Amino acid sequence: MKKGLILEGGAMRGMFTAGVTDVMMEHGIEFDGAVGVSAGAAFGCNYKSRQIGRALRYNTKFVTDSRYCGWRVFFKTGNMYSTEFCYGEVPLKYDIFDFDTYEKNPMDFFVVCTDIETGKAVYHKYEGRDDHGFDWIRASASMPLVSQIVEIDGQKLLDGGISDSIPIKYFESLGYTKNITILTRPAGYRKSKNPLLPLVRQKYKKYPELVRAMINRHTIYNQTLDYIEMQEKCGKLLVIRPETALPVSRVERDPEKLTVAYEIGRKTATQNLEKIINYLK
Question: Which of 96, 104, 179, 200 is deepest in the core (most CB within 10 A)?
Fold first, then answer.
């Protein structure tokens, strides 16, 4: 029996996920593998490095810093979140990512990106500092329209949420049979068609498969939610989700609101802790 942890993205809604995972780490809950998409990758990698509180700490400290994110950074670099600061200075200088622990931890950690030339998901087992630094994490979290394309070994990549927002079926295909999925939307949520598709078509006209994937994203996402609910009802999957919509925007810059989302995650995990432990047994 392989135990898996599946982490949805959602940009700063991922602070909810960070709250849930911190509580699980505090109680020694371990998995054979985890897979993160976008913010799920950026925040979820701290599970493998065992750095409780790190995602909350650096986000609340730097989210108002003009070097970190915002339109000023976007118009200067083409990225809403600064490559140099977010994936360079913060994890290597200001709030150091523990690569030693990450690489020694036997838990596998996968990130999901989207190949913009094929429109298909790329699932990569991220090995650590010698595996292109933080580029795989950055690629997974590079939201379309507000991020530069990330190229790794000849592949042109963007946000994994475009092609596989909640990679439950991928993990099942790897033999993970006891899975916990952390979602950042409440039960009953369904994604609508992207209102920015005209901009998507214009910006990515050289990549028709990417455009097609973004056109179909809401349909695939909702089908995945239907599958998750079916697996959940059958007792084949445990889902942790907020009870109501989180009080944060995708690019939230209010540290207090980020903290509220994080604390909601902690509360939700604490309320479900016994259920989590019993399920994994």
Answer: 179
Length of the chain: 281
What is the band of 165 on the pLDDT scale with cuts at 50, 70, 90? Answer: very high
* DSSP structural state of residue 12: G
SS3 22: helix
Average model confidence (pLDDT) for the chain? 97
* Both structure tokens of 77: 């670099």
Residue matched to tokens 């903290």: 259
Nearest to 252 by CA among 261, 263, 265, 242: 261
Q: Write the CB contacts of 207 (distance below 8 Å, at least 6 apart in sequence).
A: 116, 117, 119, 156
- pLDDT bin (cut points 50, 70, 90) of residue 250 is confident
C-alpha distances out from residue 156 to 26, 118, 132, 136, 143, Å? 37, 10, 14, 11, 13
Torsion angle of alpha carbons 233, 234, 240, 242, nearest 10°? Answer: -10
Parallel, antiparallel, or unpaired: how do β-strands 108-115 and 121-125 relate? antiparallel
Q: What CA–CA distance (Å, rounded) separates 54 from 14?
A: 13
DSSP class of residue 28? T
**If pLDDT is split at 50, 70 and 90, which confidence band does 91 have?**
very high
pTM above 0.90, yes or no: yes
CB atoms within 10 A of CB 101: 13
Q: Model confidence over 4-17: pLDDT tens digits?
A: 999 999 999 999 99
Three-state secondary-structure class, residue 162: helix
Residue 129 clears pLDDT 90, i.e. is over it: yes
With both helix axes pointing from N to C terminus, report the angle between 273-280 and 255-271 in degrees, rounded to the nearest 10: 60
Nearest to 24 by CA among 249, 274, 281: 274
Return the structure tokens found at 231: 């697996």
